[in-house]
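stage 2 :: seqdesign
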């Protein structure tokens, strides 16, 4: 039997399935919307990362083109992401942009290796509380980089790389806060949140930035009162520039030394790109009913990061906010991602001189709104109510992300999760059941028999079942007769499966709940989406 190819771009699959006029117009509308949404976010993330705003736009364009052409998800949109702000800002302070670019290049090579070795499925083994914990931690880090601009306080010289140092600067600075900056940032934040409540299809960030820029310009407010991009960056270049490697390549010994120095940073970027992009692809799958190819996605992300490093860009990854907007706007294929990149490029070429007029406080408001939604605060009470190991993992991942490092947060989070899993398994040695999932398909019913410990290492199982819910399926039955316990990650996968099934008109019910599995079912709130 010939093995299936490991590189299967979603664009090729989409075109082979048939691509018509209606599909193109759906992709065109979605791509244009995501392009205008990406514009202020990309510039804001670049500034927060310690580089010039156009470098964020370069990243959005390069990532949008390469990942859309070669990626494994139909509607995923790639570009600069909030998850990288902390790691990029610290890298620029410590190693300069060349050090960050070199690390991004090396991370791209690592991602190519991850894809070729088919390691994509293993990234899905990160426990759900760890994911929420480090996401909240990243939101706190980004917020700490934006409070100076939001309050009108001058950036510290030299830049401060750590969270506590940035917070301390807010209370021990010599600059008075500027009322104009506070009004602009607060107004931007409020407008984005308000427009989001009206419709997710409204590009609130762009509208808020345009309004803020127009008001500041018409009133003739000087940069000394409300600083603009032009006051911080004298030139906004619309021309793509190759990265100047001459300083790093001056001597072979210096090149090798620099490579070794940024190796941990490269591994961190590579791992974070893999986690973020595959999590984003899973979100996209849940919204579209499609199934991404994780190894193809990692390969495309690797190529995109290599290209971004060579053209003065930042790390590239799939971005959940833009991908969700793309899916909600009705995108059908990766063509929407290509149109998004072309839109950003057109705006950069035509409006680059006007970018200087944007107040830094407006971009701070945009990023603070990103942090608000990124922090996943509504999920914290549910995870706290579940108690035990999930609460510990959540808090541990968040604190380590903020005060130590994201990679340590993920690594220790997975290690601690495995320890808790072994403890739970050892508490039921006499009732050990094989860890299996049996699927029985009838004319109108799909029945799943879940056996053993339902833990984070098996959380991909329910997602694999979604493809079995074909047209004509009326009932999905989950049989817990031989299940010993359910952890938070598996419960979240069941929640996603049940939500998708109900959207397709399939009734979902659980049978055989008893003992610990029944208690877990209740404490994770699965009764909200699954009938007993």
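stage 2 :: out
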């Amino acid at each position: 039997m010939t093995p299936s190819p490991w590189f299967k771009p979603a664009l090729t699959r989409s075109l082979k399935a048939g691509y018509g006029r209606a599909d193109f117009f759906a992709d065109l509308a979605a791509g244009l919307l995501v392009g205008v949404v990406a514009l202020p976010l990309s510039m804001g993330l670049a500034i927060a990362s310690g580089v010039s705003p156009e470098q964020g736009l370069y990243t959005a364009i390069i990532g949008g083109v390469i990942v859309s052409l070669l990626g494994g998800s139909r509607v995923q949109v790639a570009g600069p992401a909030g998850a990288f702000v902390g790691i990029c800002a610290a890298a620029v302070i410590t190693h300069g942009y060349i050090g960050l670019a070199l690390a991004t290049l090396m991370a791209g090579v690592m991602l190519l290796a991850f894809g070729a070795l088919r390691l994509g499925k293993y990234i899905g083994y990160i426990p759900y509380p760890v994911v929420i914990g480090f996401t909240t931690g990243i939101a706190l880090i980004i917020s700490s980089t934006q409070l100076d601009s939001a309050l009108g306080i001058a950036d510290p010289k030299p830049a401060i790389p750590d969270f506590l140092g940035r917070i301390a600067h807010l209370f021990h600075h010599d600059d008075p806060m500027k009322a104009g900056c506070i009004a602009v940032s607060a107004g931007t934040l409020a407008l984005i949140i308000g427009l989001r409540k009206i419709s997710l299809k409204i590009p609130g960030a762009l509208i808020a930035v345009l309004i803020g820029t127009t008001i500041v310009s018409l009133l003739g407010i000087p940069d000394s009162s409300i600083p603009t991009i032009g006051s911080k960056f004298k030139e906004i270049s619309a021309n793509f520039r190759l990265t100047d490697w001459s300083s790093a390549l001056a001597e072979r010994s210096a090149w090798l030394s620099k490579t070794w120095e940024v190796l941990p940073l490269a591994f961190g970027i590579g791992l974070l790109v893999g986690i973020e992009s595959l999590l984003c692809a899973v979100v996209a799958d849940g919204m579209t009913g499609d199934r991404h190819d994780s190894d193809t996605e990692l390969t495309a992300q690797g190529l995109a990061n290599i290209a971004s490093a060579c053209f003065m860009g930042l790390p590239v990854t799939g971005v959940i906010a833009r991908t969700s907007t793309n899916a909600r706007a009705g995108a059908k294929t990766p063509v929407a991602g290509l149109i998004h990149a072309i839109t950003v490029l057109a705006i950069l070429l035509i409006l680059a001189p006007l970018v200087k007029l944007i107040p830094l406080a407006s971009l701070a408001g945009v990023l603070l709104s990103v942090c608000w939604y990124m922090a996943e605060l509504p999920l914290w009470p549910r995870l706290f109510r579940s108690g035990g190991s999930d609460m510990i993992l959540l808090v541990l991942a968040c604190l380590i992300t903020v005060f130590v490092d994201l990679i340590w947060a993920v690594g220790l989070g997975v290690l601690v999760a495995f320890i808790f899993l072994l403890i739970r398994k050892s508490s039921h040695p006499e009732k050990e059941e094989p860890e299996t999932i049996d699927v029985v398909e009838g004319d109108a019913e799909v029945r799943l028999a879940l056996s053993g410990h339902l833990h984070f290492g098996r959380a991909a199982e329910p997602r694999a079942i979604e493809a079995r819910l074909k047209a004509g399926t009326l009932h999905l039955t989950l049989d817990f007769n031989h299940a010993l316990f359910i952890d938070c990650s598996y419960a979240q996968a069941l929640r996603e499966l049940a939500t998708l099934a109900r959207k397709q008109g399939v009734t979902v019910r659980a049978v055989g709940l008893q003992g610990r599995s029944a208690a877990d079912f209740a404490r994770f709130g699965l009764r909200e989406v699954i009938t007993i």
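stage 3 :: structure notes
- Strands lie at 78-79, 317-318, 437-441, 445-454, 475-486, 507-511.
- The chain has a mean pLDDT of 85.
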